[in-house]
């Protein structure tokens, strides 16, 4: 054998070894890179789980989706209450009763004084904030709403009542007849709620009794949560403003508002036509 042939024979095993190592490397790389069925199945399951988790609402989402917007009955519940307040007493300062049967011949005292609200008219300072809110809300219904009369002292009520008696006498009535006629819409000194600082006359017109009935109804709804009631409602079964309500002894007045506190006002509002006198009879 020649020397040249001997070198070729020696090189052949070396080439085979290199080829073998190359094929082994290819096999290892293919094993590492090629996707395995089990891994693909796991990846698919993981993806499916992620989609389910993202799509399924949480328990809090379920709860929120069941919440509905407030109904009209819920709105009414905020304005009125059919349950007699348990923490209210007829002796509460804001339920003081002043009328022909319950009069006071001296001026009231006010722990926090009086506060001017509108048009120079004053109220007990304890209800000033509520009165201001009521007036502002009323002006959203009718911008012309304003205070006509607020607190009156005993002396002022003397002058006021005498004025109305004189007006009735001018119609040809006697003194007694004029006083009786005037008492249908004005009270003798000591019997007027204006003395308490808890009542005021509010109207959209300078001449009282000319308000739009639909606006008065809207004002009543606004008034209740703020603690106010329309003090002198129609006589039972009547829509005649001139009819005397036997409970109050007063004609219907769409301008006279009285503060009784939110709980009491909401209860009275829930019972159309109820007077303060009738409400107090229910309290202990």
Total domain count: 2
Strand order of the largest sheet: 3-4-8-5
What CATH architecture of the largest domain do you see? 2-Layer Sandwich
Oligomerization category of the chains in this entry = single chain
CATH class descriptor of the largest domain: Alpha Beta
Q: Strand content of the residues, in percent? A: 5-15%
What's the gyration radius in Å?
Answer: 43 Å
Tell me about the largest β-sheet. 4 strands, antiparallel
What is the helical fraction, as a range of percent?
40-55%
For the record, give the distance between the C-alpha atoms at the N and C termini, rounded to a whole number.
136 Å
Number of helical segments with 4 or more residues: 10
Class inferred from helices and paired strands: alpha+beta
Key terms:
about 280 residues; alpha+beta; Muramoyl-pentapeptide Carboxypeptidase, domain 2; 2 domains; 4-stranded antiparallel sheet; two-stranded antiparallel sheet; 10 helices; rod-shaped
Could you explain the architecture of this structure?
The chain is an alpha+beta fold and 284 residues long. It folds into two domains: 63 residues; 159 residues, Muramoyl-pentapeptide Carboxypeptidase, domain 2 (2-Layer Sandwich). The chain contains ten helices and eight strands. The strands form three sheets. A four-stranded antiparallel sheet has the order 3-4-8-5. The radius of gyration is 43 Å and the shape is rod-shaped.
């Amino acid at each position: 054998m020649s020397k040249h042939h001997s070198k070729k024979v020696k090189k052949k095993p070396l080439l085979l070894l290199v080829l073998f190592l190359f094929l082994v490397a290819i096999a290892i790389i293919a094993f590492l890179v090629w996707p395995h069925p089990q891994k693909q199945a796991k990846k698919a399951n993981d993806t499916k789980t992620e989609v389910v988790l993202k799509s399924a609402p949480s328990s809090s989402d379920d709860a929120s989706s069941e919440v509905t917007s407030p109904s009209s009955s819920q709105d009414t519940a905020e304005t009125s209450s059919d349950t007699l307040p348990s923490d209210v007493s007829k002796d509460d300062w804001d339920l003081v009763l002043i009328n022909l049967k319950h009069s006071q011949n001296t001026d009231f005292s006010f722990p926090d004084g009086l506060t001017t609200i509108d048009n120079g008219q004053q109220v007990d300072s304890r209800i000033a904030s509520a009165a201001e809110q009521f007036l502002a809300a009323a002006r959203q219904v009718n911008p012309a709403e304003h205070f006509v009369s607020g607190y009156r002292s005993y002396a002022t009520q003397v002058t006021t009542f005498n004025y109305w008696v004189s007006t009735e006498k001018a119609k040809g009535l006697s003194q007694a007849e004029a006083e009786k006629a005037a008492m249908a819409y004005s009270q003798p000194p000591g019997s007027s709620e204006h003395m308490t600082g808890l009542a005021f006359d509010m109207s959209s017109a300078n001449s009282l009794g000319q308000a739009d009935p639909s606006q008065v109804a809207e004002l009543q709804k606004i008034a209740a949560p703020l603690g106010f009631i329309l003090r002198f409602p129609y006589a039972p079964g009547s829509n005649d403003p001139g009819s005397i309500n036997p409970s109050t002894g007063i004609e219907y007045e769409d301008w006279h508002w009285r503060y009784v506190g939110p709980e009491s006002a909401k209860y009275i509002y829930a019972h159309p036509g109820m007077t303060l006198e009738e409400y107090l009879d229910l309290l202990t």
